[in-house]
Predict the structure of O-acyl-ADP-ribose deacylase 1.
Amino acid sequence: PRIGCGLDRLQWENVSAMIEEVFEATDIRINVYTL
């Protein structure tokens, strides 16, 4: 499962938004892959 969306039962839309907010002011590139 995507980070935070397995046992934690969070919604991916919320987790994704949090990740984007945390890293938007950095030079770090985040890639999410789904298998």
Observations:
- The chain has a mean pLDDT of 93.
- The helical segments are 12-23.
- The first helix runs from residue 12 to 23.
